[in-house]
Amino acid sequence: MSNAQTHQNRYKADLREIRFLLFEQFRLDELLGSAPYDAWGRDEVGMVVDEAYKFACDVFGPLNAVGDRVGCRIEGGQVKTPPGFKEAWDKLYEAGWKSVSVSPTYDGQGGPFTLYTVVEEFLCGANAALNMYPGLTYGAAEVIEHFGTPRQRDLFLKRMYGGQWSGTMCLTEPQAGSDVGSSRTSAVKQKDGKYLIRGTKIFISGGDQDLTENVVHLVLARVEGAPPGTKGLSLFVVPKIRVNDDGSLGGPNDVVVGNIEHKMGINGSSTCVLNFGESDACLGELVGTVEHQGMPQMFRMMNGARISVGLQGVSVASSAYLNALEYAKDRKQGSSILQWKDATAPRVPVIDHPDVRRMLLDMKSRVEGIRALIIKLARHQDAVAVYQGKDDRAAAYNQGQVDLLVPLVKAYSSDQAFRVCETAIQTFGGAGYTKDYPVEQYCRDAKVFSIYEGTNHIQAMDLVGRKLGQGGGVNLQAFLNDVAEFVKANEKHPVLAASIKELREAHEAVAGTAMRLLSWFQLGKMPMVPLAANRFLEMMSELAIGWLLLDGAVIALKAMEGLPAGDAGAKDRAFYEGKKHAALYFAANVLPHAKFSAEILGREDSSALDIPADAFATV
After folding, report:
1. To the nearest whole percent, how much of the chain has pLDDT over 90?
2. What's the rounded Cα separation, in Å, for the pair 469 and 466?
3. DSSP single-letter state for residue 431
């Protein structure tokens, strides 16, 4: 790869699509101007969108291939990040892009979470590996802000939100993997109230780097005498360099990088093995004041991290799609299918070939639908902040939708990101398999999204095991009611009626399957639940996305009626036509999967349970 290619930004985003979601479909401006977003209006949001995208393209984007090619390395026990990462980190915090939704108490801008998700999409899409360092820092700081003592908030938050120090989350251990309850990392209380920490954590993203002067680790550990399993875990603040009471740095805290992983993708992100207390000199302090609260505390960061993974997925998939679209418009190959017998027919852009158009529309519908789902979740989160203490019923409804949608956002977005990137490569043909274009890196980077922050099966089990029954099922019922109301209001739509019928049938399939899952719990057919969980999460995600795409299409078709004729309205007309066709495609080609999946689950096939382990292969 040439140096010019290495330093070229290839990231793309559709700002018209972003604005449509923010202001036409989800009407964020209805929440702006009210506490806690009184200082924000439509103009301010629009300005941030424009400038954040420019920053992502100018600063983060050119380093994406650099990070992939060079990767991270260890020198003298210190992780060294790829060239340019440190400078980009400094520019990120100087420009204030990580403080958009941080409270003014900690020198933030106090903006809506919905706007933060848009900024994060740009940063993730431009350079997923680089943005993992500040992303995890933000999440760790949020945990300390929510659960920490006043001293901990004063000591850590401005330095973390401001980029002086970074943060991590340390859960996974070699012998435990996703079974966090099997953690062996120990915490022994000392006379001064601090704890001696000893143990090994693996797969720690951003576990060490040369971007900041300190790394603040949030470490799950078990205090002496604590009960087994997740209920006995506590969460500790364990800085790499000890922190004095005035915020100045002391000496090393016996946190040692044992190794970094060499991975399939996100090579610019250091994935570390961390050894705590090899010399019995690693000190940590409890987050807050109560022991055995580690998992509830960590879940706050994990939920934020899961939304961030969903953002990573859609951001990379979106850029892969837009790069494939650009290539398909430019590359000429073959003649039109209408002239297939004419050897002298002119070559046409590959976008004229039916199968390429199918792939492009498939990618478009999935990317735009997933983004709509994420913006919907974020908008619910902002509504919670606006209604809390003023309208308890509205706040509870919106919080319930956030809780319900998190596993859908994380799992479906990350699964589809890999598939969209795969389709983008196919659209390029052989060129897509080379490093001359960014889509092969997008595909490699995207694969891990379905694995970390809780594998997607864990998300599916969270959905069917916890979220469906949360609040006595009220959150699920509210979601299903919202879809049903949309169907009722639009079932006779002059353009979308057939698609709305598909949505209604998918709604019935999801509602019926949810009841089937409940019956399996009640009838003791528990092994059937994990067999079906992933399929159900996919069904429910596609129902949600089909609904949001059709909702967007209704809005788009209405907006088209008011457009001026001729060239004046041509660009908007083309955009709205795209919204209509994405919805029609998804309804005709993806929504029927929900009906078929419900039928398959109804057969209660147990062949995967019945096959003996030795029968899988005789090698």
Report:
1. 90
2. 6
3. G
